[in-house]
From TrEMBL:
<dbReference type="InterPro" id="IPR050267">
    <property type="entry name" value="Anti-sigma-factor_SerPK"/>
</dbReference>
<keyword id="KW-0808">Transferase</keyword>
<protein>
    <submittedName>
        <fullName>Anti-sigma regulatory factor (Ser/Thr protein kinase)</fullName>
    </submittedName>
</protein>
<dbReference type="InterPro" id="IPR036890">
    <property type="entry name" value="HATPase_C_sf"/>
</dbReference>
<dbReference type="Pfam" id="PF13581">
    <property type="entry name" value="HATPase_c_2"/>
</dbReference>
<keyword id="KW-0723">Serine/threonine-protein kinase</keyword>
<dbReference type="InterPro" id="IPR003594">
    <property type="entry name" value="HATPase_dom"/>
</dbReference>
<feature type="domain" description="Histidine kinase/HSP90-like ATPase">
    <location>
        <begin position="209"/>
        <end position="327"/>
    </location>
</feature>
<dbReference type="GO" id="GO:0004674">
    <property type="term" value="F:protein serine/threonine kinase activity"/>
</dbReference>
<keyword id="KW-0418">Kinase</keyword>
Length: 338
């Protein structure tokens, strides 16, 4: 292959490096981010940011040993694995523990920060030749700057204030100088507003049900729901989604199940929508709890628990979609408001 050939080793590595580059961080009222990476040879470095939940920002800096296609592919895999792990992991340390259990850590330097812009808290962790600088105990004040690096980049040992010259210049000054690695600076500007609703979708597989429960729980925890409410809603949502996955689809194809959660005056409403065959789970006969086990009919017990755990449950068929509405007054919020 000729020099400059996009299918040569160098050409493929260059293309993979370009794919690792993150999108520019958008302008937001709560937080500002700048990052960069540089490789002097023999390494693939990158930084990444994404929002695993509406109020949660995850920022990573990574360096993978090796400058060939295999190393670039490994770096791409690490990037996607971090994102997958943070769908359920609550802290940076938990996420990196899960990552270490599922990938070879040899030649891998990684720093991770998980920041909740509504709560004003952050957790940080690192593995290998990496570092994280957080404000005191992860509780943030407006103007605090957090740092993370992987590789040979130097960062401040303590959280710093926002620089007069701007963040971009401050980050650029730490990149290069013959070292390979990535560095990020995160400026916390103000706490975000607590969203009163959230909408997300999952696939029609049993593997997606747990992820839906985690997202619902995180939303409720942000609003201060108590553990008794959380446990009851976990059980009810698991039963409803299991019914939808088991009985709603007959074509064997992939479908979306939409979930919308909202809180108003301490009352939670969850709408679960799917485009499967018409199926009213409320039509399942209630079990005869007085009958002995041998004569009791199979089925209906799960929906009986759903009705017991929630205040109201209703169903309608709307424009070709099954729509199940679950409503519950949250005890923890009611106590706090009284």
């Amino acid at each position: 292959m000729t020099a400059g050939d996009p299918l040569s080793e160098d050409g493929l590595v260059a293309q993979l490096r370009a794919l690792l580059a993150p999108q520019r961080f958008p302008v937001r009222r709560e937080v500002e981010l700048e990052g960069g990476a540089h490789d002097a040879g023999g390494a693939i470095s990158f930084h990444d940011h994404f929002w695993p939940a509406r109020s949660v920002l995850a920022v990573s800096a990574v360096r993978v040993a090796g400058g060939d296609v295999a190393a670039a592919l490994r770096a791409a895999g690490v990037k996607q694995l971090i994102r997958a792990v943070l769908a359920t992991a609550r802290t940076a340390d938990e996420a990196l523990d899960v990552l270490a259990a599922r990938t070879d850590a040899t030649g891998l330097d990684i720093a991770l920060v998980v920041l909740d812009v509504v709560a004003g808290t952050a957790s940080g962790a690192f593995r290998g030749k990496a570092a994280v600088t957080l404000a005191g105990e992860g509780r943030l004040a407006a103007g605090d700057m957090l740092w993370l690096t992987a590789g040979g980049m130097d960062i401040p040992q303590e959280a710093t204030a926002a620089p007069v010259e701007g963040m971009a210049a401050l980050v650029r000054a730490r990149i290069g100088h013959g070292a390979s690695g990535a560095v990020c600076a995160v400026l916390f500007k103000a706490r975000g507003r607590l969203a009163e609703e959230t909408v997300f979708s999952i696939g029609n597989t049993h593997g997606d049900i747990q992820a839906a429960g985690e997202k619902a729980r995180r939303f409720l925890e942000m609003h201060g729901a108590c553990e008794a409410d959380l446990t009851g809603i976990d059980v009810a949502l698991d039963e409803v989604l299991t019914n939808a996955v088991n009985y709603g689809f007959e074509d064997g194809n992939a479908h979306e199940i939409l979930l919308a959660l909202s809180i108003a005056r301490g009352s939670l409403t969850i709408e679960v929508q799917d485009d499967g065959r018409p199926f009213d789970p409320l039509g399942i006969p209630a079990p005869d709890l007085d009958a002995d086990l041998e004569s009791r009919q199979i089925g209906g017990l799960g929906m009986h628990f759903v009705r017991t755990l929630l205040d109201r449950v209703s169903y309608e068929r709307r424009n070709g979609w099954n729509v199940l509405k679950l409503e519950k007054q949250l005890a923890g919020l009611a106590e706090r408001a009284s």
